[in-house]
Fold NERD domain-containing protein.
Amino acid sequence: MTTTAPADGVGSVPAAAVISACLSAQAGFPARSRVSRVFGRSPLSVDSRPWYLGALGELQVAARLAKLGPDWTVLHSVPIGERGSDIDHIVVGPAGVFTINTKFHDDARIWVGSTRLLVNGQKTDHLRNSRYEAQRTARKLMAVVGEPIDVYPAIVLVGARSVTIRERPVDVTVLRDTELVRWLTRRAVKLTADGRDRLAEMLTRPETSATPSGASSEPDLTAFAALRREVGAARRVRMLWGTAGLLGGIVLAATLAINAYSTLLGG
């Protein structure tokens, strides 16, 4: 089983920051009416939906990373600044230290070049942000260890319809979540067991990570679980309505066909 941060320590809760942001954005949104529930309208607000999808992506990647063996340590939602920014996942294992930037792009078409990553044809800052996260982590570790530490950034895509790699970026790996564990475990060994443990411990120190002032360290997981159930129920209702509409269309078409056939026979 993969090692994770202590239950009460930095990096112990996957998607902690985005779950908190999602619930905060959702807090002022009015509850759905009975009619909205009957027709399966999503309970998510326009503001909370991106955070919600981001949380789902991070949780899915966290589940993938949990399949790594005991030689690996995984930290989640690690604070890196005073403005509430965080790194989705930091992984320490035989192959080194990795920063994982999870991106949930539902049903999107992703295009990757050497210097840019497009989502449905739109430019993003994904590559730049991933480089920054790795560089900042490396600087923090060097300040504590006293020597340079290589940190490798990766962008992990969740939910994309297609991913086209035209040219791979030199310094950032881009891959789907289904490829992540295999990619990590097949890399060359760079760290000893003692070195891995030392770096993993340092990443949880206050001087290495930065918890934003006034921020809650623990998101309301119960509230988020309830929101997920509500979103799932609404989706199922919409699917039922869609199925009913399809069946209704088939019945109508069959009725019209029978009537037309009867008219022809009668003629």
Remarks:
- The chain has one domain: 3-266.
- Confidence is low (pLDDT under 50) at residues 212-216.
